[in-house]
Amino acid sequence: MSERETEDALVSRVLHHFDEGIRTKQGCQAELAPQIARGAQVMIHALLSDRKILSCGNGGSAADAQHFSSELLNRFEAERPGLPAIALTTDASTVTSIANDHHFEEIFARQVRALGHAGDVLLAISTSGNSANVIRAVQAAHERNMICVALNGRDGGDLASILTEEDINICVAGPSTARIQEIHLMAIHCLCDLIDYQLLGQD
Ligand SMILES: O=C(CO)[C@@H](O)[C@H](O)[C@H](O)[C@H](O)COP(=O)(O)O
Ligand SMILES: [Zn+2]
């Protein structure tokens, strides 16, 4: 392949990813919008009741959990006082010691049991719905009478089956982890926008 042909092939793959991303977003927006709105209402109710939001996930979803908590703790698009949120993915000492002394599946659940109170919210993020440590975190949140908002994917996996009627399942159907993650990030930005809109009346 010439350099020119290689560049054309790469550009064509990028265009394919953009097309696939647009199609996936368009395909799920009608179904997800009400779920995202319900998830935001649960979070807004918790924040107005002086409760907090914990978040967790693995890999790209760990980054999403931190992305969300930083936008609450610091700010999203508008200036406002920080809001209480904790990503359970960030403290390497805590995560490694729980994994080492107990089990990797416990890394989030143990923190939920230590930090969670009734009325707090857990944002549980998984593209497969099958990460055992996220599922354990949801079970621990239920023990603490917390509500869970799941950012889920594919068929919802085991995570979907343990959610209660009070919980919210924002589930992106589709086979690609990358595309699911991209919509999860869109959902996170919608949640932040709705929280600010409700709390501050921002446009
Ligand atoms: O970001 C990616 C792939 O895009 C990976 O790091 C991915 O997040 C990891 O494989 C996770 O362990 C997958 O976990 P989950 O989304 O199925 O719960
Ligand atoms: Zn952001």
TrEMBL record:
<feature type="domain" description="SIS">
    <location>
        <begin position="43"/>
        <end position="203"/>
    </location>
</feature>
<feature type="binding site">
    <location>
        <position position="67"/>
    </location>
    <ligand>
        <name>Zn(2+)</name>
    </ligand>
</feature>
<dbReference type="InterPro" id="IPR035461">
    <property type="entry name" value="GmhA/DiaA"/>
</dbReference>
<dbReference type="InterPro" id="IPR001347">
    <property type="entry name" value="SIS_dom"/>
</dbReference>
<feature type="binding site">
    <location>
        <position position="181"/>
    </location>
    <ligand>
        <name>Zn(2+)</name>
    </ligand>
</feature>
<dbReference type="GO" id="GO:2001061">
    <property type="term" value="P:D-glycero-D-manno-heptose 7-phosphate biosynthetic process"/>
</dbReference>
<dbReference type="GO" id="GO:0097367">
    <property type="term" value="F:carbohydrate derivative binding"/>
</dbReference>
<dbReference type="InterPro" id="IPR050099">
    <property type="entry name" value="SIS_GmhA/DiaA_subfam"/>
</dbReference>
<feature type="binding site">
    <location>
        <position position="189"/>
    </location>
    <ligand>
        <name>Zn(2+)</name>
    </ligand>
</feature>
<feature type="binding site">
    <location>
        <begin position="126"/>
        <end position="128"/>
    </location>
    <ligand>
        <name>substrate</name>
    </ligand>
</feature>
<feature type="binding site">
    <location>
        <begin position="100"/>
        <end position="101"/>
    </location>
    <ligand>
        <name>substrate</name>
    </ligand>
</feature>
<comment type="pathway">
    <text>Carbohydrate biosynthesis; D-glycero-D-manno-heptose 7-phosphate biosynthesis; D-glycero-alpha-D-manno-heptose 7-phosphate and D-glycero-beta-D-manno-heptose 7-phosphate from sedoheptulose 7-phosphate: step 1/1.</text>
</comment>
<dbReference type="InterPro" id="IPR004515">
    <property type="entry name" value="Phosphoheptose_Isoase"/>
</dbReference>
<feature type="binding site">
    <location>
        <position position="71"/>
    </location>
    <ligand>
        <name>substrate</name>
    </ligand>
</feature>
<dbReference type="GO" id="GO:0005737">
    <property type="term" value="C:cytoplasm"/>
</dbReference>
<dbReference type="GO" id="GO:0008968">
    <property type="term" value="F:D-sedoheptulose 7-phosphate isomerase activity"/>
</dbReference>
<comment type="subunit">
    <text>Homotetramer.</text>
</comment>
<dbReference type="GO" id="GO:0008270">
    <property type="term" value="F:zinc ion binding"/>
</dbReference>
<comment type="function">
    <text>Catalyzes the isomerization of sedoheptulose 7-phosphate in D-glycero-D-manno-heptose 7-phosphate.</text>
</comment>
<dbReference type="Pfam" id="PF13580">
    <property type="entry name" value="SIS_2"/>
</dbReference>
<keyword id="KW-0479">Metal-binding</keyword>
<protein>
    <recommendedName>
        <fullName>Phosphoheptose isomerase</fullName>
        <ecNumber>5.3.1.28</ecNumber>
    </recommendedName>
</protein>
<keyword id="KW-0413">Isomerase</keyword>
<keyword id="KW-0862">Zinc</keyword>
<keyword id="KW-0963">Cytoplasm</keyword>
<comment type="similarity">
    <text>Belongs to the SIS family. GmhA subfamily.</text>
</comment>
<dbReference type="GO" id="GO:0005975">
    <property type="term" value="P:carbohydrate metabolic process"/>
</dbReference>
<feature type="binding site">
    <location>
        <position position="71"/>
    </location>
    <ligand>
        <name>Zn(2+)</name>
    </ligand>
</feature>
<feature type="binding site">
    <location>
        <position position="131"/>
    </location>
    <ligand>
        <name>substrate</name>
    </ligand>
</feature>
<feature type="binding site">
    <location>
        <position position="181"/>
    </location>
    <ligand>
        <name>substrate</name>
    </ligand>
</feature>
<keyword id="KW-0119">Carbohydrate metabolism</keyword>
<dbReference type="InterPro" id="IPR046348">
    <property type="entry name" value="SIS_dom_sf"/>
</dbReference>
<feature type="binding site">
    <location>
        <begin position="58"/>
        <end position="60"/>
    </location>
    <ligand>
        <name>substrate</name>
    </ligand>
</feature>
